[in-house]
Amino acid sequence: MPADFFDRALVGAMPWVPRPLIWRFSQRYIAGTTLRDAFEVVRELNAAGCTATMDVLGEDSTTTQQVDAARDLYLEALQGIQSASLDCNISVKLSEMGLRFDIAQTRRVMRELLSDARDRGNFVRIDMEDSSVTAVTLDMYRELRKDFDNVGVVLQSCLKRSAVDVDELLHGGRTNVRLCKGIYIEPEDIAYRSPDEIRESFQRLLEQLFEGGATRVGIATHDPELVTHAEKTIRRLKVSKHRYEFQMLLGVAGTLRRQLVDKGHPLRVYVPFGELWFNYSMRRLRENPDIAGHIIKNLFSAQ
Ligand SMILES: Cc1cc2nc3c(=O)[nH]c(=O)nc-3n(C[C@H](O)[C@H](O)[C@H](O)COP(=O)(O)OP(=O)(O)OC[C@H]3O[C@@H](n4cnc5c(N)ncnc54)[C@H](O)[C@@H]3O)c2cc1C
Predict the structure, then answer these.
(1) In this predicted model, what pLDDT tens digit does every residue of 138-168 receive, in sequence order?
(2) Does residue 10 lie within any of the structural domains?
(3) Which range marks the domain in which residue 171 is found?
(4) Is 258 inside a domain boundary?
(5) Under 8 Å between Cβ of 283 and 4
(6) How far is the CA of 221 from the centre of ligand 1 (A)?
(7) From the CB of residue 235, how many other CB atoms can be counted at a distance below 10 Å?
(8) Is residue 22 assigned to a domain?
(9) Could you tell me if residue 223 is inside a domain?
(10) Ligand 1 mean position to 288 CA, how many Å?
(11) Directed axis angle between helix 278-287 and helix 289-301, to 10°?
């Protein structure tokens, strides 16, 4: 039976695993449940030569109260980052800010966050969610960048549309993009499915962004092959350090991260925190069945 089958079976069993056990294994990916935990982790990352971006965990808010709570936490984060002189910005999901039930509210909240961040010399990255909201997320980014130059967005190399999106964004003005593979499972007619195709698309998009004059590109990957290609591209095109940064998730690929920092590349770590850690953890664990395997083993061998 293929190893892949066991991996998928393990991941399929995850919803039945007790939350405290998932929490134990998720700790490497999550700064903690409070803002204070996140500040602590960011301080350590800064001391190790990395910048950071904070993510208040949560998505698909369904009430105004949820949106307000997330907004307040982000505002508190921006204030704390400034007063502690941390090198850290914020990453926000539009669905957490009400995109799926009240886009006018999302627009208001995003303007509020961007304006507060601008006053503090800070920056807001709009994370990219699944393909049902790609177009509306890019529209929101285009609208916001007319008034704010401290906003960026994310493109996913698994989506076939991304090359056209890069072109359109570059033609529209200042373009600040984080490029990643894309974490959501998308239908075959709109997305590349094979790892090689996704990787090749990533390489093409990165070159397109640099050659087309993107203001800044976040190269968000732990894939050694993509990192090597990015380093070569940066050298070949003589891309200066203020136009790019590598980006990695907290708890992933620590050795590669240190190697890049030691070579003098700018590197930002994505630091998620908050009470709503469960869905994020499940996504990380789904990506890494090795860990899912450890969890299931612990389930049967613990005590
Ligand atoms: C900073 C940052 C921001 C992101 N933002 C978004 C976003 O807004 N929208 C979106 O759709 N996706 C986002 N992603 C996720 C991204 O799309 C990929 O799903 C994820 O980064 C895995 O792809 P990879 O390029 O690292 O390559 P992979 O081939 O998946 O991973 C390469 C290697 O990295 C290690 N690795 C990868 N994942 C894990 C893990 N969970 N645990 C342990 N080791 C691991 C493994 O050694 C693996 O072999 C983001 C990723 C990063 C780094």
Answers:
(1) 999 999 999 999 999 999 999 999 999 999 9
(2) no
(3) 34-301
(4) yes
(5) no
(6) 6
(7) 9
(8) no
(9) yes
(10) 10
(11) 110
